[in-house]
Amino acid sequence: MIGNSIYSLLSGHAALTALVGTKIYPVQAPQAVEEPFLVYGISKTQPEETKANASAEDWVTVLVDVYAKNYDVMHSITREVRTALDKQSGTIAGNSISDIVFQDFNDAWESDRESYTGVSEYLVISTP
To answer: What are the structural domains of the chain?
Structure first.
C-alpha cells in the first residue's frame, strides 16, 4: 500500500526526524503523544479510467497533518515533509511510484490539543 511508501520517505528524511523523532503515525496518533508529531493518511484513490483494461495507474491523495505547540516549528516540520515527499518517484517500499506532487497546504488551530496544525495534500501517482 502507498502508506508504506509515505512512511518510508518520511521516516527516512533525517531533517524531518530531527524535528519529530519517530512520531510519524498512520491515520491517527496515540492520544497521549506530545507535540510535535505528524499523521498521514489516504483521503482518496482514483483509478485511471480505461475502456477495455484494468487501471494502469492510481491517483492517490495523501494528507499529512503536522501538530506542534509553536507555529514556526509547525511550519518547519511542514517544509521538511514537503522536501521528503515532493517529486519523489521510483520503487519505494515495494510500490511503483511515477510521481508525488505537492498540491495544497493550510494551517489551523486544534483546540482539543491546543496546538497548531498544518495540513499538506499530495497526489501520488502509482501502479495499483
So the answer is: 2-126 (3.30.2000.30)
CA-to-CA dists, residue 70 to 60, 82, 117, angstroms: 30, 19, 10
- Nearest alpha carbon to residue 10 among 36, 40, 53: 40
Cβ-contact 40, 108 below 8 angstroms: no
Residue 13: its pLDDT value, please? 98
Cell of 127: 501502479
3-state DSSP of 14-74: HHHHHHHCCCEEECCCCCCCCCCEEEEEEEEEEECCCCCCCCCCEEEEEEEEEEECCHHHH
Q: What is the pLDDT of residues 79-109, one digit of tens each?
A: 999 999 999 999 999 999 999 999 999 999 9
For the cut 90, the answer to whether the pLDDT of residue 30 exceeds it is yes
Q: What is the SS3 assignment for 104?
A: strand
C-alpha cell at 86: 515532493
What is the overall mean pLDDT for the chain? 95
